[in-house]
Amino acid sequence: MIQIEDLRLVEALAQSPSLSAAARALNVTPPALSARLRxxxxxxxxxxxxxxxxxxxxxxxxxxxxxxxxxxxxxxNALPESFRRDxxxxxxxxxxxxxxxxxxxxxxxxxxxxxxxxxxxxLQLDLRETPWPDRHDSDAVIHIGTVRDSSWIARTLAPNAxxxxxxxxxxxxxxxxxEPRDLLAHAxxxxxxxxEDVTLWRFRPPENAGRRASARETVRVVPAYTTxxxxxxxxxxxxxxxxxxxxxxxxxxxxxxxxxxxxxxxxECDSAPVTLLVPTRRGRTxxxxxxxxxxxxxx
Length: 299
What we know:
Layout: H1 4-15, H2 19-26, H3 30-44, E1 49-51, E2 56-58, H4 60-82, E3 92-99, H5 100-117, E4 121-128, H6 131-134, E5 140-144, E6 152-158, E7 162-166, H7 168-174, E8 188-191, E9 200-204, E10 217-220, E11 223-227, H8 230-238, E12 243-247, H9 248-257, E13 261-262, E14 268-269, E15 274-279, H10 286-298
Parallel strand pairs: 3-4, 3-5, 8-11, 8-12
Antiparallel strand pairs: 1-2, 5-15, 6-15, 7-12, 7-13, 9-10, 9-14
Helix pairs in contact: 1-2, 1-4, 2-3
């Protein structure tokens, strides 16, 4: 007979790159997990996973079992709430994934307030370089930028302009760009994130520039510096290394304090809205619904 522990076992295997990682997620030893896996495979009469010294991957049958296991576990987790009339008394686990910088600066403090309002909840915050689309096992994902996966429920929490910035010292030494094409003669700092084309910077002209509102200027910059951490890119810009195209939420304080200066401020760059994503396969439990309402009112 299939046990709940078997469902959790295969769910952990689907979310982990190795047997050791899955064992850590389940708080068991790798030999114990391996034995449980062999027992489950014997019960089913089929192989669920292939393992090497360094890697684990699910077979097609294992992937199907993992999908159905995740759906069953989600239903089991939501079952108590279906009988609960008082939604203010939330219990269970709520897993949220968010980007490193925004998650650390904005989401973590908000979740602390949310946890105080709902002491029966167990919150898990997973900060990652690319929380979406990586974290399909989460109950909610905070994403910054364009959403391209229509299978997820998306709610915009806040607008988020992108600002082109540089330090006052850099602009004194190298001059201030007057138009986007001037960036080709400047040191640019690029951020690798969300599989975007990070060297293609797009600008819309000022309304009084005498051009069509839909007109755009696109510049293929040559990066002098590249990083996958937006906060580091902003710090490099503050230190005078070059110009950075970065979210308003991360640069506003530096601009207000004078550490950075907005460049081409009359030109509008593509925005990167802060979005809450909820996987449709899990629906909107009372926990998720409460989180959505809280974040929409707080951000």
